[in-house]
């Protein structure tokens, strides 16, 4: 028997399972893909590391290393700040305010990237904007994820989490196709934009800023911050030291009273990094082992994200019926099987990669979405922001696992086959599978209960 989500119209009357507040929330995922996918993955980072027609780096030598250091520094700051930001939003009751503030900062960072012309003297400006954008994006995501229990009941949290995550995949691809064929790929794009002085990429940054802004407005206007009592407001004014003391006390309290949440934070950090590794190294494998051209990689990337988006939305209902843990276990198990098949059948070329690569993509999104919905079910009421902040922190702390597994597997592969690393690149698949398998084994002992509170305490007025 399922529960309906309350469609908050001011009178407390129950409505459809997926009403406007849910769609408004999910549209933030759709809009945030502009920074997460287009800027960070496909366009701006590629622009910073690109070469001109003469084969010279646009932004000087050593960009790759500097990019790595900038993003690593951003990762450290996210790990340190995320749980504190979430904790303060919990205490003050101002999740929507901080979602708006951090999303606004992402919009500003994205728009300022327009001024990063191909000049070595502007490299650090580009890196600073990219790193700052990553920080603000992750801090916004903490408050966004913490809203999940405000718009869902335990009976619908899976489908709603899946809807948001699926919209993120689809929104990123829609925007990527628009900017690629509208500005980047043609010699003369929309509004006469060309590639001279990096104008095609720089205009794309403005489009990304507008995209993020437009699709973040619905959730900000729909899910209002609930007023808090004066004593709660005063309690929110803890200093940094006091906030960290409170954070450590919460973690200790979780360890004493609800170790399943702590166990899950650890397990999810491992398998989430494995899931990230599938996309991080998938394009490398497609080109290096399976003979894809650069255009073929883009086509596969589009197909992969569409498949992942649709599968994630569909799997949300399975999550609600059978539980998020089962979804994650089935997803990780299926990915390990598909990855193993890809390893042993690698001589089959692009056809094999299309088959088993898409199978992998079918299960990536459902595992990510179910991970979010499972944590939402475990978090004690009133600690959503803080625990989702820890979720971000543990994810950052484990972000070395997939690259390490990949590198070690390549080294072992070269030793076993007696060939160069390039010829035995397919061994890297085993490194990613190992990370997924370890995460799966760590997840199995976690027991999942249901929160007793219901949803949607923040509603737009009638």
The CATH class designation of the largest domain is Mainly Alpha
Which architecture of the largest domain per CATH? Up-down Bundle
**How many angstroms does the end-to-end distance come to?**
29 Å
Strand content: under 5%
Number of helices: 16
Number of domains: 2
Fourth CATH level, the homologous superfamily of the largest domain = MFS general substrate transporter like domains
Q: Can you give a write-up of this model?
A:
There is one protein chain. With 462 residues, the protein is mostly helical. It has two domains: 213 residues, MFS general substrate transporter like domains (Growth Hormone, Chain: A, Up-down Bundle), CATH 1.20.1250; 171 residues, MFS general substrate transporter like domains (Growth Hormone, Chain: A), CATH 1.20.1250.20. Helices cover 73% and strands 0% of the residues. The protein is built from 16 helices and no strands. The longest helix is centred in the N-terminal third of the chain and has 30 residues. 48% of the residues are buried.
């Amino acid at each position: 028997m399922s529960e309906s989500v309350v469609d908050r119209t001011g009178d407390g009357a129950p409505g459809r399972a997926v009403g406007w507040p849910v769609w408004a929330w999910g549209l933030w995922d759709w809009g945030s893909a502009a920074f997460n996918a287009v800027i960070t993955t496909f366009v701006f980072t590629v622009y910073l590391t690109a070469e001109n027609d003469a084969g010279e780096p646009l932004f000087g030598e050593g960009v790759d290393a500097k990019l790595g250091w900038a993003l690593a520094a951003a990762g450290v700051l996210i790990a340190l700040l995320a749980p504190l930001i979430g904790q303060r939003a919990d205490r003050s009751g101002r999740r929507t305010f901080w979602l708006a503030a951090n999303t606004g900062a992402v919009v500003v960072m994205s728009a300022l990237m327009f001024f990063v012309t191909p000049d070595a003297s502007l490299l650090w400006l580009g890196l600073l904007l990219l790193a700052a954008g990553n920080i603000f994006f992750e801090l916004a995501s903490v408050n966004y994820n913490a809203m999940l229990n405000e718009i869902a009941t335990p009976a619908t949290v899976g489908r709603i989490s899946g809807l948001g995550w699926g919209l993120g995949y689809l929104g990123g691809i829609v925007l990527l196709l628009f900017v690629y064929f509208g500005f980047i790929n043609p010699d003369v794009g929309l509004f006469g934009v060309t590639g001279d002085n990096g104008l095609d990429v720089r205009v794309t940054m403005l489009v990304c800023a507008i995209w993020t802004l437009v699709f973040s407005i619905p959730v900000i206007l729909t899910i209002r911050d609930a007023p808090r009592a004066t004593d709660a407001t005063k309690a929110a004014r803890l200093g940094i030291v006091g906030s960290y003391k409170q954070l450590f006390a919460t973690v200790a309290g979780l360890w004493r009273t609800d170790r399943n949440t702590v166990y899950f934070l650890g397990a999810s950090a491992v398998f989430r990094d494995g899931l990230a590794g599938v996309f991080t190294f998938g394009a490398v494998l497609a080109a290096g082992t399976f003979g894809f051209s650069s255009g073929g990689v883009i086509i596969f990337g589009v197909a992969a994200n569409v498949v992942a988006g649709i599968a994630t939305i569909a799997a949300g209902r399975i999550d609600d019926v059978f539980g998020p843990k089962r979804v994650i276990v089935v997803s990780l198990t299926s990915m390990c099987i598909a990855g193993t098949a890809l390893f042993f059948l690698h001589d089959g070329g692009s056809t094999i990669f299309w088959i088993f690569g898409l199978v992998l993509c079918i299960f990536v999104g459902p595992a990510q979405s179910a991970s979010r919905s499972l944590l939402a079910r475990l978090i004690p009421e009133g600690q959503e922001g803080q625990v989702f902040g820890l979720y971000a922190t543990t994810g950052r702390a484990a972000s070395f696992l997939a690259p390490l597994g990949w590198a070690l597997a390549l080294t072992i592969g070269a030793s076993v086959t007696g060939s160069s690393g390039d010829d035995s690149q397919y061994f890297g698949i085993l490194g990613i599978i190992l990370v997924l398998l370890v995460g799966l084994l760590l997840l199995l002992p976690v027991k999942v209960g249901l929160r007793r509170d219901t949803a949607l305490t923040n509603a737009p007025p009638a």
